[in-house]
Design a protein that fits this description.
Shape: elongated
Number of strands: 7
CATH topology of the largest domain: Rossmann fold
Order of helices and strands: HHHEHHEHEEEHEHE
Catalytic activity: H2 + A = AH2
InterPro entries: NADH_UbQ_OxRdtase-like_20kDa, NiFe_Hase_small_N_sf, NiFe_hydrogenase_ssu, TAT_signal, TAT_signal_bac_arc
CATH class of the largest domain: Alpha Beta
Number of domains: 2
Radius of gyration: 19 Å
EC number: 1.12.99.6
Distance between the termini: 21 Å
Strand order of the largest sheet: 2-1-3-6-7
Mean pLDDT: 91
Helix content: 25-40%
Subunit structure: Heterodimer of a large and a small subunit.
GO molecular function: 3 iron, 4 sulfur cluster binding; electron transfer activity; ferredoxin hydrogenase activity; hydrogenase (acceptor) activity; metal ion binding
Bound molecules: iron/sulfur cluster
Length: 200
């Protein structure tokens, strides 16, 4: 998982991309977006100076195939997305850290990047019996979700489980599986449904 203080430019330089290619990329981006002549240098400046956006990816009730789909992506390759485009600081399904070490990353992200990180949510929180049907890090997932949503810049509901509830929410829905927008109501939530969601 990458450090959120790194810029896009420093990451691609480390991967062997030359400065000339970087500026070519900025010019092509500006041209393809139909922007004016100054745009290329502004894009270059932003990529050189602004840290990549930290992303926290959490998992509730689900089958994890939306992650399976993501890690098999060819366009973009998952390594390009994770190592160059975003700073994926936490994903309890694929990260090496576990237990207290993993939980500490959440605290650190809230402290250092308050209001600046994106929260991606796969799966949904079950609300029945105080959320006891999905325990994550020693507490009900719904509590963890609310805690991380509080300081997030925006939230992505990744897949049908997070967006609509999917199969867990089918009648009689014994766990009271609930889409995340019914639990988090004070933040922008982008729904990206699909079962599984295609990363393209
Ligand atoms: S949306 Fe479908 S594929 Fe994705 S985690 Fe839920 S059940 Fe699995």
């Amino acid at each position: 998982m990458g450090a959120a203080t790194e810029t896009f430019y420093s990451v691609i330089r480390r991967q062997g991309i030359t400065r000339r290619s970087f500026h070519k990329f900025c010019s092509l981006t500006a041209t393809s977006l139909g922007l004016g002549p100054l745009a290329a240098s502004r894009i270059a400046n932003a990529l050189e100076t602004k840290p990549r956006v930290p992303v926290i990816w959490m998992h509730g009730l689900e089958c994890t195939c939306c992650s399976e789909s993501f890690i098999r992506s060819a366009h973009p390759l998952v390594k390009d997305a994770v190592l160059s485009m975003i700073s994926l600081d936490y994903d309890d399904t694929i990260m090496a850290a576990a237990g207290h070490q993993a939980e500490a990353i959440l605290e650190e992200t809230r402290a250092k990047h308050k209001g600046q990180y994106i929260l991606a949510v796969e799966g949904n929180p079950p609300l029945n019996e105080g959320g006891m049907f999905c325990i994550d890090g020693g507490k009900p997932f719904v509590e963890k979700l609310k805690m991380m949503a509080e300081d997030a810049m925006a939230i992505i509901a990744w897949g049908a489980c997070a967006s609509w509830g999917c199969v867990q929410a089918a009648k009689p829905n014994p766990t009271q599986a609930t889409p995340i927008d019914k639990v988090i109501t004070n933040k922008p939530i982008i729904k990206v449904p699909g079962c599984p969601r295609s990363p393209k």
